Amino acid sequence: MSARTPEDGNPERAPHRALSPETLAAQALGRVDPRTGALVPPLHASTTFERDPDGGYSTGRGYIRPHNPTFDEPAELLATLEGGAGCLLFSSGMAAATAVFQSLLPGDHVVVARVMYWALRKWLIDFAMPWGLEVEFVDASDPDAIAAAVRPGRTRLVWIETPANPTWELTDIAAVAAIARDARARLAVDSTVATPVLTRPIALGADLVVHSLTKYVCGHGDAMGGAVAGGAALVERLVTGPRVHQGGTLSPFNAWLIARGAATLPLRMRAHEEGALALAGFLEAHPRVARVIYPGLESHPQHALARRQMENFSGMLAVQVAGGAGIARRMMDELEVFHYAVSLGHHRSLVYWLDTEDLMRSSFRLTGAQRESYARFAGEGVFRISVGLEDPDDLCADLDRVLR
Ligand SMILES: *Cc1c(COP(=O)(O)O)cnc(C)c1O
Fold first, then answer.
1. Which residue's CA lies nearest to atom 6 of ligand 1?
2. 14 pLDDT tier (thresholds 50, 70, 90)
3. Amino acid 60: pLDDT
4. Ligand 1 pocket, 94 CB below 6 A?
5. How far is residue 208's CA from residue 84's CA, in Å, rounded to a whole number?
6. What is the reported pLDDT for 16?
7. Phi, psi of 292 (to 5 degrees)
8. Which atom belonging to ligand 1 lies closest to the Cα atom of 96?
9. Which residue is closest in CA terms to ligand 1's atom 8?
10. Is residue 98 in contact with ligand 1, taking CB distance under 6 Å?
11. Of 72, 108, 114, 117, which one is the catalytic site residue?
12. How is 41-92 classified by DSSP, letter by letter?
């Protein structure tokens, strides 16, 4: 591939369709720094950029809040992998997700999944709803529930997350995209756990794809970031304002780390899946384990959808064990390979107990039938396991020792 010229930061460019995701990610879209010939994209720390003598900005850059050239490569790679022409990077997954909602107006109606990343759910309840957004929480694993909730001409946005943290329920993206289209609502998908290599929401009809880059895309647990990908004009119109003016801009160093991590994303996802399948099978047969929820297991209630929609089942498990809260306390002390810690998508394996009561009180606040349906998945709580890149035999032995 030929060397590319410096970009003006405008994400509108045709995706490179011909090469596979592995190649595009491994080679950072084939880019070579045109000034130095460097194969590693340079890290530009500058917060400000010189103006042309005629007063213009021929580079398209003035100040870091709208743009820094270090963003070009990861943004273009993500746009290309997602099959959208536009992608905007943010300081975090939450900054990316909230920017999508902040493109709406008080009084707008949105339909969102009842199971989603806890902090976003809490933000919707504590900030977006008091601000005036009319938010309806539905069981997104059931497209009929979404069809019943959307109000044609009134609903502006349908927000889903698949697989959904922390129960790993799935949403049928194509089915929900058809419902949203009929209602003239936009569909946004939090695809953090599926990553840009396992599921292609835009090809399935979604308008926007949101990622926490802090997780699998960076993959090394050392940089926070977020992204919104989609049609170039849509991304520009919906989320550029919230990002630029609220200041949810990524640091160039984090952009550089994320670009470096993304080079191995397809390879790492294969290893995460391999480890997760081994651990899920081991735990499902374990006498102390009541239930393992993993899209790659035939026992997952939506395994057929997972096979259809995901090219790989990712590396996240939920595990029910009687007396989980007590085991969690022992884990902090006794685990040798796993780390008892929040977050996901890193090279190191992480486990964390999510107590259903605590989650309901602190952020989910589901009531009635929705709470019952959550408990049907999660029981009194689940161990959320993010399978890293260690040898699966070491992971199985570590959990086995603590569970006995
Ligand atoms: C972590 C996470 C987020 C939030 O991302 P941050 O980078 O932590 O702000 C959003 N959605 C999902 C599914 C996540 O796992």
1. 93
2. low
3. 77
4. yes
5. 9
6. 52
7. -120, 130
8. 9
9. 93
10. no
11. 117
12. PP----SB-PPPTTS--TTS-SBTTT--GGGHHHHHHHHHHHT-SEEEEESS
Q: Rounded to the nearest whole angstrom, what is the distance from the C-alpha of residue 88 to the centroid of ligand 1? A: 16
Residue 167 contacts residue 378 (beta carbons within 8 Å)? yes
Measured in Å, residue 94 CA sits from the centre of ligand 1 at 6
Q: Rounded to whole angstroms, how far apart are CA atoms 330 and 100?
A: 40
Q: pLDDT tens, 386-399?
A: 999 999 999 999 99
* Cα–Cα distance measured from residue 294 to residue 316, given in angstroms and rounded to the nearest whole number: 7
Q: pLDDT digits over 222-262, tens only?
A: 999 999 999 998 898 878 888 888 899 999 999 999 999 99
For the chain, give the longest Cα–Cα distance: 75
- Distance in angstroms (rounded) separating the CA atoms of residues 87 and 191: 14
Residue with tokens 């609903």: 155
* Through-space distance between the first and last CA atoms of the chain, rounded to whole angstroms: 55
**Predicted structure pTM score:** 0.94
- Residue from 90, 94, 210 to probe ligand 1 pocket by mutation (most atoms less than 8 Å from CB): 94
Q: Which two tokens stand for residue 355?
A: 């107590």
Question: Which residues lie across from 386 on neighbouring strands?
Answer: 316, 350
Chain position carrying tokens 């790679």 = 77
